[in-house]
Write a structure and sequence with these properties.
There is one protein chain. The protein is of the alpha/beta class. It has 20 helices and 19 strands. A twelve-stranded mixed sheet has the order 8-1-10-19-18-17-16-15-14-11-12-13, with helices on both faces. A seven-stranded parallel sheet has the order 4-3-2-5-6-7-9, with helices on one face. Strand 11, helix 10 and strand 12 form a beta-alpha-beta unit. The longest helix is centred in the last third of the chain and has 23 residues. The two termini are 28 Å apart.
Length: 520
């Protein structure tokens, strides 16, 4: 999970272009010398290196031609001054250096760093450089990357990854788009990424979640400059410690009617478990009442598993309106199928006008309908479903997840939750929400059903704030999975493990006043 440093707007995420403008503002308007700022970044990154890998050497520092390379040269100088053995390679010729990056190279050489030019190294020498070190510092390509890295960077990045050595990435792993989190070619797979000035959105979603390793933010004491620059964030990072305060407080005399009635419409033949997972997750997420409308053959199993859920066996869509009338929020889609039964169910849900969460097959069915935007719906597609909804290909979704979520929201209205590492929640506001973090154990069938149930229950309790319900649902889902993984691991994690962990997670958000005197 990313660490959260202090400073103004610590959870605001910016585009790469905005960060460059912030950097320029800090230098030109606040009078902070660019080279001094570069030295501060290098010192901060080196401190993190020493803390994470105390006493490790030799180091291989790989430097590019821009300011990112300048950070690397100054890190190498810091390491030499601290008595560490350093091999510093200029991946891009030092003849291309200018400005602060040139000054950084000059200082590194003056401090005793021996800089070797990549172009001067033979194949055996380059191979030896990677074989005879214990840690790599990646300072090759910074936030300016928008396409696939070209040679010689692509080849050096590939060597980094083949070495399987720990890597500290300076500001952003080389090859990662710092705005979108997309990867179009080779990319450094970092163990630790130390990023500066302002958080970059691409580090927290898409491939960024996979290649950045642990992300540590160093504001470099210029947070006032970030706020004063006038740059707007493209996203806000949401984590459990922050969203806890969104959970509605419960009075001592609370009753079930105050926390909403969630109706889960799900479970065609062969998919009865999907509806049950969603319904049980809703029950474990604070809904006052939970009903499940499913195929008649699933009723017995559902009651045996979760008797607190009111289960109804439906043969035809005409039976659904009576249940819809009693519901606060409808969750439709898990295992609902794409046969006539599922089509009838979705038709009734949409025509009811009830606040709704649409997932799974409901989204597949929705993609074949004429889009009618609705302000009171939450759509929860994974990239494949998102591609169907936008009539495009999955790689187009993953190339810019923020843009894809915003486009879905503009087409369909309401709130769109685009699943994946760094789940994105778009509501039509300028900045989307990103649920920070990922868990590989969640890559298994049924996890999305649990998420839809959690969101449905939170929506029922926060009916005026669907975006908060969606964002909190994504964060709670991840937090429960992380806690369940402590005992179960990743490969053994199943959806019911996440459901079982939900009470422990929500308990932390309950104010002490909810307990009777003497209880803890």
């Amino acid at each position: 999970m990313p660490q959260h440093a202090g400073g103004s707007l610590p959870d605001a995420l910016f585009s790469a272009d905005s960060v460059r403008r912030i950097d320029q503002y800090v230098i030109e308007q606040q009078g902070i010398d660019g080279f001094e700022l570069m030295q501060s970044a290098a010192r901060a990154a080196f401190r993190r290196l020493v803390v994470r890998w105390p006493g490790v050497e030799p180091l291989l520092v790989l430097c590019g031609a821009g300011n990112n390379g300048g950070d690397g040269y100054l890190m190498a100088a810091n390491a030499v001054r601290h008595g560490l053995t350093v091999d510093c390679i200029a991946v891009s010729s030092t003849e291309k250096l200018s400005g602060d990056a040139f000054s950084a190279w000059q200082k590194a050489v003056a401090d005793g760093v021996k800089v070797r030019q990549l172009a001067d190294l033979s194949e055996p020498e380059l191979t030896s450089a990677f074989e005879n070190v214990n840690l790599i510092v990646d300072a090759m390509l910074g936030t300016g990357v928008s396409g696939a890295p070209r040679e010689p960077f692509a080849g050096v990045i590939a060597r980094c990854n083949r070495s399987e050595l720990p890597v500290l990435a300076v500001d952003v792993p080389s090859g990662l788009n710092a705005t979108t989190g997309a990867v179009l070619g080779e990319v450094v797979k970092a163990t630790l990424t130390v990023t500066f000035i302002a958080r970059k959105a691409g580090l927290y979603t898409g491939q960024g979640a996979a290649v950045c390793g642990e992300v540590i933010f160093e504001p470099l004491d210029v947070s006032a400059g970030v706020a004063g620059s006038g740059e707007s964030p493209v996203a806000m990072l949401r984590h459990w410690e922050f969203v806890q305060s969104w959970l509605p407080k419960r009075s001592a005399n609370a009753h079930k009617g105050q926390f909403g009635h969630v109706l889960v419409v799900a479970g065609d033949r062969g998919f009865g478990g999907a509806g049950l997972l969603a319904a049980e997750a809703a029950a474990r997420s604070g809904a006052g009442l939970v009903s499940l409308a499913t195929r008649p053959e699933h009723v017995t199993a559902a009651l045996a598993r979760c008797p607190s859920v009111m289960v109804h066996g439906l043969i035809h869509g005409s039976e659904l309106p009576a249940l819809l009338n009693a519901a606060t929020v409808v969750v439709c889609g898990p295992g609902v199928g794409q046969s006539s039964w599922g089509q009838q169910m979705l038709q009734q849900v949409v025509e009811s006008g009830k606040p709704r969460v649409l997932d799974a097959d409901a989204l597949n069915l929705l993609s074949s309908r004429v889009a009618v935007p609705a302000h009171n719906q939450i759509l929860t597609p994974h990239p494949g479903e998102a591609a169907k909804l936008l009539n495009c290909l999955v790689p187009e979704i993953e190339a810019d997840r923020l843009a894809a979520a915003n486009k879905l929201q503009s087409h369909y209205g309401g709130v769109v939750l685009l699943k994946g590492a760094g789940t994105i929640i778009a509501s039509g506001e300028a900045a989307v929400d990103i649920a920070g973090g990922s868990n590989p154990g969640m890559a298994t069938g049924g996890m999305g059903d649990v998420l839809s149930g959690i969101i449905g229950a939170l929506y029922a309790q926060m009916i005026e704030s669907p975006v908060k319900a969606a964002a909190m649902g994504a964060v709670v889902h991840l937090e429960a999975a992380n806690r369940a993984s402590v005992d179960k691991g990743y490969m053994g994690l199943i959806p019911t493990d996440v459901i079982d962990a939900l009470p422990q997670v929500f308990r932390e958000a309950e104010p002490a006043s909810n307990c009777r005197k003497g209880e803890k």
